[in-house]
Every structure is written in structure tokens, then in C-alpha cells.
Design a protein that fits this description.
two-stranded parallel ribbon, 218 residues, alpha+beta, 7 helices, 7 strands
Length: 218
């Protein structure tokens, strides 16, 4: 990734850590933007979008890359001013780092679980959550189906096509030596990179969560 642009403005930092504004800014990161086209695409009121865009321009978050001549008045073409921005924690409105991280991911977490719920509600599979002790004596929480539980010890016929939804939601604790934990971190990153390379705009969109951290206080 190219060197990110460092944010120095409190107002810019607030915008770049606001998930609702980032959803609009996404288009400017992805491609060149003509406001009339974006407003139509997103079903937005053009004056409202223009108000936000002028603020982003003022703060250096986006810029005009060129103007295209059109009948009457030239049309401006916009793009994000950098491929990535670095927002120092001290510029965010959060009282502490923990609150900042929670606020940053909580809305995406909520969307993740909202979509899981919708998929489960329309699925024929009887999904539930399996809660119990793991092999190391820690509590594990795993999404599964009643059919999977009943057949845990049976060999699955690999000729069968698995048509159940592509869903995964695990939470738990692993006790690993440092080298093993670093290996897991690297394998998770490599796995994510592998499937990021398969991204295509015409395919089904999937929300994902991936994380690993030492447990400081159990």
C-alpha cells in the first residue's frame, strides 16, 4: 500500500472515523466520481451530497482531478485525495483507545450479525449455537445446525454437495505458544489475501470478521 496521507485536522479525523460518512466516501476511493451520476446511483439529493463534498474538499479528503466540458457548465470529476489516510488516535473524539476501537467496529459488527440473522431466518436449516467446554477447558461458542450435532461422529459423504448457506461465526480462546500464535496470525492474513484476490463485483457480497489478540484479563 502507498504511504497513507496523515490527517492533522480534528474535523477530518471525525469524518474518517464515521462509518455513515465512509459509506459515501467509498465511491471516491473506488473510482472517479461525477456527482450527478453518484447521486442518481445512490438515490441521494444532489444539494445534500454537494454540501458534504464541499466539506470533504475543504478538508483535503477528496480533490477535483479534472473538469469535463459539457453543454452549459463543465462537470467536475472527483477522487479521494489519497488511497489511504492515517488518523492519529489523539485526533479522534473518543475518550480512550478502547472506546475508539469499539466505536469503530461496533456498527460493522451489528451489520454482520443483522445479515446472519436475515440469512438464518430464510434458511431451511435449523441453526443454533453450540456452547460448551473446548479441549483446553475454555468455553467455546460455535454456530452449527442440529443435523451437524447429530452427525458429529459420522463420516460425511464427500460426494454430497453442501448447499447450506456460507456462514461462520466462532468465538473462543486458544492457548498457544508465541510461535504458534504468530503462525496463526500469518495464516489468517494469507487466507484473507487469497480470497480478496477473488473479489468480483458481480458476485454475492459477504461480510467477514477476522481477529486475534492476546487475552490480558480473562
Amino acid at each position: 500500500m502507498p504511504t497513507p496521507k496523515r490527517v492533522t485536522s480534528l474535523e477530518a479525523a471525525k469524518i474518517l472515523t464515521d462509518t455513515s460518512q465512509l459509506r459515501l466516501l467509498k465511491a471516491f476511493f473506488q473510482a472517479e466520481v461525477v456527482l450527478t451520476e453518484l447521486a442518481t446511483q445512490l438515490g441521494l439529493n444532489l444539494p445534500t451530497l454537494l454540501y458534504k463534498v464541499n466539506k470533504w474538499l475543504e478538508l483535503g479528503i477528496i480533490h477535483v482531478i479534472r473538469e469535463e466540458p459539457r453543454r452549459g457548465r463543465a462537470s467536475k470529476v472527483y477522487r479521494a485525495a489519497a488511497e489511504a489516510f492515517f488518523v492519529p488516535f489523539e485526533l479522534t473524539p473518543s475518550p480512550d483507545l478502547s472506546s475508539f476501537l469499539y466505536e469503530l467496529v461496533s456498527k460493522e459488527d451489528q451489520r454482520f450479525y443483522d445479515n446472519i440473522t436475515r440469512e438464518l431466518q430464510r434458511s431451511d436449516s435449523h441453526f443454533g449455537v453450540l456452547v460448551g467446554l473446548g479441549e483446553l477447558g475454555n468455553i467455546t461458542v460455535q454456530m452449527t445446525t442440529e443435523a451437524d450435532i447429530l452427525n458429529l461422529d459420522e463420516v460425511t459423504d464427500t460426494s454430497d454437495v453442501d448447499t447450506s448457506p456460507a456462514l461462520l461465526s466462532h468465538a473462543g480462546v486458544l492457548r498457544l505458544e508465541f510461535d504458534a500464535a504468530k503462525a496463526l496470525e500469518q495464516e489468517m492474513e494469507a487466507l484473507l489475501e487469497k480470497y480478496q484476490s477473488l473479489n468480483t463485483t458481480s458476485a454475492q457480497a459477504y461480510a467477514y470478521r477476522l481477529g486475534l489478540t492476546p487475552v490480558i484479563d480473562e
